[in-house]
Amino acid sequence: MPKFMRSLNIISRCQSSFRNAKLGSELCSAHHSLVLAICREPGRSQDDLAKDICIDKSGVARALASLEAKGFVERKPDPNNKRKLLVFPTEKLLELIPSVRSVTTEWNRMVSEGISEEEFTVFQSVLFRIEKNARRIVDNQEVTPEK
Known about the structure:
By secondary structure, the chain is mainly α. It is built from 6 helices and 3 strands. It has helices at about 5-25, 30-40, 45-55, 55-70, 90-110, 115-140, and strands at about 45, 75-80, 80-90. The chain has a 3-stranded antiparallel β-sheet. β2 (about 75-80) and β3 (about 80-90) form a beta hairpin. α1 packs across α5, α2 crosses α5 and α3 (about 45-55) crosses α4 (about 55-70).
């Protein structure tokens, strides 16, 4: 089996560097997938966001606190469950999202240069199956820290 995870990690780090260079300090590249998820479906809970983008709940809470301090998001209690916080984009974030999406489109275009549509379709299909397996593994395991 090829060592594909190393390549995926390198690609991800390169993408982060690219985003940081394009977006400046306004929005950290680590928040990229989170803000896209928030704007895709405003009013989702922190827990739903954590599960969607596969980041632990405390990591999402820290990221949201940072985004809230910068004026990008608002967190409001769920009227049906006061212990749940729902997350909404602010106007400031909504104004920035076209730039975020543009950077994503540019990155995707550049990294897929020289790859035929057929090759990319097969690659995407395999990658989605690997993602599905990874999510299943994480969802089915009891996460307990090793000593």
